[in-house]
Specification:
homodimer; about 350 residues; alpha/beta; TIM Barrel; 7-stranded parallel β-sheet
């Protein structure tokens, strides 16, 4: 699990708490960051966003993406930055463009329906290397962070990316994507392999551009039956984990309570947990070596501050050590900033 | 768990397989029905629906609701009818009207935000007794079924109903509804109690109108952390189960894998399972007395027929006995009718 040499990180980073925990080293308190911390919870983000034509302009303009990536470090003093981007840049690089529709979410004018659609997709390094704007955003961020905290890069897990490429948009059931698994499992595997090849190339380019750590998000893990998760999701996440040996990697498979044992066998450093999971149950299922990340209920940040502080402390005690503090989901856009700060400050004041 | 006397049901019903299983009696094969079987999977439903102004016209016109309730009995020969209606008739009876927006789902022009909103809600029998069109639909259906199969009545669980009343529409996160639990738990409990009182009165009137069996749907169970599910959901479902002793009752709490032990302690006859749950794991957690209902992946019905037949048989074997066959979710609108028929016929041909 020691995917990064201590030298490499510590010579440049003033705060490497999160890398230490991912590597299994002792720390005096858990590090803390929030999924979606760069975004609508921050007034400075909303101010910048209001001046732009849309979400994609922000994703595709490196200086702006870097700016919003650093905002939560300045405002919240969290222990890691995560590059501002979107998991759907991968389908776009593969040849399937998306739009981000205000208040509705992503929309793909064309979707994957048949073998010819998969055949014509670009994949691997040829696809990933097109995403200049992401790598440039990482380079600018890394330079401007100047070692304050580690920089996290990310990608969607192949099953989640397939879901969008086939469904064409968000869905309560993702029944079109799921239909493909039953009606044409061979084509699904071909598509998953192309996505995986592209994702590995992409993550390696992110490392080259300065990412100190990586996270793979399987946002739609929870809609697959266990047997299908084992067949269509786990093997591709495994390929990614096996390919990434340069920096620590976290796998967050939301709602995949039924797949914990399999997730525990991946060659990753950290497993992300949603807010339903009990840390000690998870520890028993995945074994002693990995760090765990999570898992406060994001809605707790709507509560009075005393309750946020108390439940955050209880959560940390529940995890014992080897813990990276986060919410169990991305922070919701209307979360009060004071609630977020109370959460972060409680963690930073904690001592094991 | 013997909530209905055998005499009462058997004198009138030609097929009482589902009631027998709910009561814990021996049967030669499991009964089968589908959640949302009355609806868009049937061409005769789509033909009728196309002539109407909207979904609510169908819900509120007893003769038409009865007609679509009986369609799946004629077309699919399933072992139970479920009255065509909507869980949101309860908020409407309480004073909060809803619209059903084509392709988007329910929308409440007014929502519950503060104490005054809860205070002015009608509740209990005064609210429930307004739903004449539901009771009349049950009476017509019962008469026209003429004992062919039992008739199931249903309601949403109080937490799910609260979610819609506060959120005002469907949501990926239901964060407004969840915010209420953290910011004003007292008000949430007051609202839940009013919903519960109304639901109990409503279900008793459904029994009086001919329902042979009841099901409570907690569609949004899976978004609450375990501790909140214990506090805000389970106690109100328990009140409902305790109050209903006349007919068997089923509780289906979707995605509530973390609450199985508590669900197992309810005074209900049957627990509905989503497609993630392993029947033998569930059996261990909830004990030997209750029937289990479910839990084929609804997307399996997109698969080739041989696969549907094989996996349906395997599922039945996995449950052993005390099993009512169903999908693990409502059948999806674009499911091929031949897939549905293959599923139903496989169950009907099965012998223990």
């Amino acid at each position: 699990m020691q995917k990064v040499s201590a030298d490499q990180a510590q010579t440049v980073l003033q705060n490497d708490l999160i890398l230490k925990v991912a590597r299994g080293e002792e720390v005096e308190r858990p590090p803390v960051w929030l999924m979606r911390q760069a975004g609508r919870i921050l007034p400075q983000y909303r101010a910048l966003r209001g001046k732009l034509s849309g979400f994609k302009e922000l994703v595709e303009t490196p200086a702006l993406a870097a700016e919003v990536t650093i905002q939560p470090i300045d405002e919240l003093d969290v222990d890691a930055a995560i590059i501002f981007s979107d998991i759907l840049v991968i389908p776009e690089a593969m040849g399937l463009t998306y739009e981000m529709v205000e208040k509705k979410g992503p929309f793909f004018p064309e979707t994957i329906q048949q073998a010819a659609d998969v055949e014509k997709l670009v994949s691997g390094d040829s696809a990933a290397s097109q995403l200049h704007y992401v790598f440039e955003a990482l380079e600018i961020t890394k330079r401007e962070l100047a070692g304050r905290v580690p920089l996290i890069g990310f990608a969607g897990a192949p099953w989640t990316i397939l879901s969008y490429m086939v469904e064409g948009q968000g869905s309560k059931t993702f029944s079109k994507a799921r239909k493909l698994l039953y009606q044409n499992p061979k084509l699904a595997h071909q598509l998953l392999q192309k996505i995986t090849d592209t994702t590995i190339a992409y993550l390696k380019l992110k490392i080259a551009a300065g990412a100190d750590m990586l996270q793979v998000f399987d946002s739609w893990a929870g809609i697959l039956p266990k047997a299908q998760y084992s067949e269509f999701a786990i093997p591709y996440i495994r390929q990614i984990c096996d390919a990434i040996q340069e920096v620590p990697i976290t796998v967050f498979a939301k709602d995949a309570w039924f797949a914990l044992e399999e997730l525990g066998q991946l060659d990753c450093n950290t497993i992300g947990l949603d807010w339903h999971l009990d840390p000690q149950d998870v520890r028993q299922k995945i074994g002693p070596t990995k760090a765990l990340q999570g898992n406060l209920d994001p809605c707790l940040l709507y509560a009075p501050q005393e309750e946020i502080a108390e439940k955050t402390q209880n959560m940390i005690k529940g995890f014992k050590k080897q813990h990276i503090v986060n919410l169990g989901h991305g922070v919701y856009p209307d979360t009060p900033l004071d609630g977020v700060k109370c959460f972060v400050n409680t963690v930073k004041a904690y001592r094991y």
